[in-house]
Amino acid sequence: MPPNWGGAPPYGPGGHGGWNGGHWGRPPAAKPGVIPLRPLSVGEILDGAVSTLRAHWRTVLAITITVSVIVEIGSILVERYLIPPPPEISPDATPEEALNAAVDSMQSSLASLGPTVLLSMISSLFLTALLTTVISRSVLGRPVSLADAWRESRPRLPHLLGLLVVLPLVYIAVMVVALLPGLLLSGTAAGIPLIVLGSLGGIVALVWLYIRFALASSALMLERQGILDSLKRSAKLVRGAWWRTFGIMALAVLLVILVAMIIGIPFGLIALAADGDGFSGLINGTSPDFGWPFLIITGVGSVLASAITYPILSGVPVLLYIDQRIRREALDLELARAAGVPGYGPPADSAPRG
Fold it and tell me: Which residues contact 37 (CB under 8 A, 6 or more apart)?
């Protein structure tokens, strides 16, 4: 059975210390799975996410490739049939006509964002739920199949969906509040400076909130927390470690971007070579009309990149959550017992509870 994620004892006298080879100190850390059960370094957190992919590659790839293929097919169909071609602007167009064409193009692009955002939300829902379960099992060194991951994560999907809806609404509300003074004074001399300052302040607030709530999905899935309780739980765990959490999350994003570029650029070049019409449009300086060859080849590259990068993006927050609980609540002792590590007592036999 999974460990009791919801209740590990806090540090106490001798909680992590002990008699070790004639000296008082920390005993060697147990490592039943992909990470050692002790406070983790940055490299161990990133390596743990990659090691999960290696240790459970069948399950992880089954999840990521299935979701990636569905999302990519949906994105291709949206791009091909829902996004209208950009309006042609005549070289002799008046400034008013050029402005109207630009506004029309912006409106059509915004309208096409709806299906894209919906696809992204659905993919995030299933990836977060399933991969969190896989990673929590891999920490204990236990096998996990796709059926196991689905069975454990399915009851939490409605709560996770609520969290994925609430967080963007919070971010939108923050930006609206930040931009509102400038928008109200847009016709005055102070309007533009207020909009610029509001944009900068809003971006800073969004980054701060994003990191503060970065561990909410892990708390929701592993501790069976509600939406508001998981947000409070994440804020509590990140408190005092905001910059460390920000640095590790930023490093993970940079790693993901690098991997995506390494995989995506060759597929993009092959797609351009295979799609003569789109390539000629780029050469001539006109709007490229990319056809099915370009969309399919770049789609394959996107699926391969996503299959590798999704476990990193999903794994780092989960391992950060575990690391913070090890540092603050001695969760490593509970995990060692749950994994059946000798010297830590009998394995935990209770299911997770909030």
Answer: 29, 30, 31, 326, 332, 335, 336, 339, 341
Residue 153: is its pLDDT beyond 70?
yes
Of the candidates 172, 182, 242, 183, the residue with the CA atom closest to the CA atom of residue 213: 242
Strand, helix or coil at 183?
helix
Name the burial class of residue 347, with classes exposed (0-12), middle (13-18) and buried (19+) by CB atoms within 10 angstroms of its CB.
Answer: middle
- How much of the chain exceeds pLDDT 70, in percent? 76
pTM: 0.82
* Nearest Cα residue to 159 out of 116, 114, 220, 86: 220
Cβ(38)–Cβ(26) under 8 Å? yes
Closest CA to 73 of 304, 290, 303, 314: 303
Alpha helices in the chain (DSSP H): 42-55, 57-77, 95-139, 146-153, 157-184, 191-212, 216-222, 227-238, 242-274, 276-284, 292-329, 331-339
**What is the structure's pLDDT at 172?**
93
Burial 212-246 (b: 16+ CB within 10 A, else e): bbbbbbbbbbbbbbbbebbbebbbebbeebeeebb
How is residue 224 annotated by DSSP? Answer: -
**Distance from C-alpha of 98 to C-alpha of 35, rounded to nearest angstrom:** 57
Rg (CA), the chain: 24
Q: Given the structure tokens 């929701």, which residue do they identify? A: 220
Q: Concatenated DSSP letters for 50-93?
A: HHHHHHTHHHHHHHHHHHHHHHHHHHHHIIIIISPPPPP--TT-
Q: Give dist(CA 102, CA 124) in Å, integer.
A: 32
- For residue 222, pLDDT over 50 is answered with yes
Cα separation, 201 vs 183, whole angstroms: 15
* Residue among 231, 207, 205 at smallest CA distance from 217: 231
Residue 22, sorted as left (phi over 0), alpha (psi -120 to 50) or beta, turns out to be: left
CA angle, residues 71, 209, 259, in degrees to nearest 5: 40
**Separation of alpha carbons 300 and 258, rounded Å:** 17
* pLDDT for res 287: 55
Strands 18-20, 23-25: pairing is: antiparallel
